[in-house]
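Record pair follows.
FIRST:
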Amino acid sequence: MSLRGVTIKEGQIGANVIGDGREFGLITNGVAIAGKVSLGSVYTLRRVSDATALGIDSNYDASNGVQVYRHISEFFRRAGEGQKLHILLVAQTKKPGEMVDDAKTLAVESGGVISDMALAFNPAADYEDTLLDGINADIKAAIPLLQGFADWCDEKDMPLHVILEGRSIGDMLSACVDLRGLVISEQPFDAEKVTLVVGQDWAYADTLPGHGKKFADVGTFLGVVASMPWNRNPGEVETQNLTDSQLGVWTIGGLSNHKKYSEVFSELETLNDKGYVFPIRYQGIAGYWWNDGHCCVEIVNDAAGNMNQHTIYYSHTMDMCKRQLRLTYLPEVKKPVSLDDDGKLPQSVAGYFNAIGDGVFDSLASQALISDGETNVDTDSDLLLEKVLNIDFAVIPTGCVNEIKGTINLKNQ
């Protein structure tokens, strides 16, 4: 018996449910600074000042002919300070397709928590852009390799989405390859985990020398993605105006062929249909917005009602559901399970496992991150020899209003 009368102890704190746990990554060509930043090493930033402490600032970009600080500063301008950005710099001789091993290093050393990884291409001054099917040949060659990287991450329980800088797009937009119908080595190829960004802050790019003028603002796009829940469209009109007139940022939008929005306006519908990401304007409102969150894959809806991941927010929905389901089911692995006389799973036990998955979906739906989800455990699963519990999951993502169509009439009453 205690003489204290009333005893109140502090309870244990469980897993943090504030936020969605995402972290972000950036790989780009850069230059080492002795005693500050090295090539091939991973650095975690939470604000722009963390980058300047490494010697990465606007002078670093100008002296080395790169846009490292640009991408980092734009990320935090949109995402806000406090978000985790893991960066890794590589030699300027490396092309995006040659950064896959570095991307794996970044994914692993960050603890597998990166949900979106951007790859920026800062080649040396003597680099010459070569076009293939209307886009930079080295960028096009990287797309299937980066899809392979995303597949590798998924197999290692680190699902993520890749955002690729589409520098130096061709001037003739009608000649640009259809990203929703890619053909690699004469075979159709789907890269649903890759988004190609070909937009730039034209006024900023115009201040850059040489091929810097043809860079694309992947840091801005990554920052927009990081600033909002993972099921949201990065082109959301209410919240994602890229322009800041006081800072003089994104006052003129353009493409990575260094053409202003006004110069390419008539061809942008075609570029949008082909799955490219770039800035657009809306008449009557000042500013620029991303057109959408396209992926390099055709839009598919099969006879069973299954959709593919043709937008970045559907890709996020798939990845984040898999991450949460895996973590929730993991404690059940290797536990004993009682079976019926015929070796099959009793309905009561199947109901238990169904409830686990449905609980995940209910939680995500209550946060308006998905619309609904359903778990269906296979009672014929062999837990005696194969020891594998088979489960089918179905998730309905949240929808998105990309366009509003209406009719209007003049009435006399």
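SECOND:
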Amino acid sequence: MSDSAPPARKIIHVDMDAFYASVEQRDDPALRGKPLAVGGGHRGVVAAASYEARKFGVRSAMPSVTARRRCPALLFVKPRFDVYRAVSQQIRAIFADYTDLIEPLSLDEAYLDVTEDRRGLGTARAIAEDIRRRIAAETGLTASAGVSYCKFIAKLASDYRKPDGLTVIRPEQGPDFVASLPVARFHGIGPVTAKKMESLGIHTGADLRRWSLPELEARFGSSGNWYWRICRGIDEREVKSDRPSKSVSAERTFDTDLSDPAQLCAELERVAGLAWVRIERAEVGGRTVTLKVKYGDFTQITRSKSFAVPVRDPAIFLAAGQALLTALFPVPRGIRLLGLGLHNLSERFDEQPQLRLAF
């Protein structure tokens, strides 16, 4: 019986480069090299943007009107989620040749635990290189990958040299790598929290590491413990192939509190569009539509509507949200945040009975 410690985990985070937009450019040569947005439409949001569009500041989740203003030459195409799913399945089949420990986060990214070198390639870097080579050869698309000893750093590393990049962060490099990055790039720290941190003088991982655990918990509640750990390169989460999703949602905080019904309905439509993109990426269905409302005084309420079968149609999803919102009119005070999401989720919802457009 050996008393030796188990080997350090070897985790790869694979993230496809501008996945939806890259698929569209692959399939239509006329779109290659041009600024492209998937999604959009009247009051819609950008589901994905090509790298040519990103040079103009176009980003996913951006209202289409803002995207057009930033890039007048921007081309919009309708999303083809059936095609994206098919390509995603191709990519996951490649992953399965290297490990059974695959944790998909969406159609275009996943964690892989390759601590066991199934194909005898020698290193996690070599495995990541081989995966990226095969993705390019079999799908015509590029992927970026991060290799490290934990999920948090592997995900940071995959974004470090995008597009078509590979970054390896060894255990002894982890804390310094995290310290060098802006906290706004940390997944799990959204724009609101990043802004709060910056107001406290916390701009980088190094700044965050100077705060004690009690100080972080006093400022950020239960999340303080997580922030204390990640800025030190500590993340003990395992790659779980059966990771359940509890909910998928999106929300938006407004610069000024809103009370006009028409304006609120228009904003909810944008939020619903972003949420539906995330729902499609997560490949889930849900029976409960939940509206989140935060008023200007920071009081918060939620309202929900449940269905007997999973909601599959984005029009039904939006209609349910609009019904929940309009039931609150006239609002007692200005609203600073709207959110909309699906709960009671189930995977592979293509195989289940679906709610049709008879809302």
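COMMENT: The chain is about 35% helix and 25% strand.
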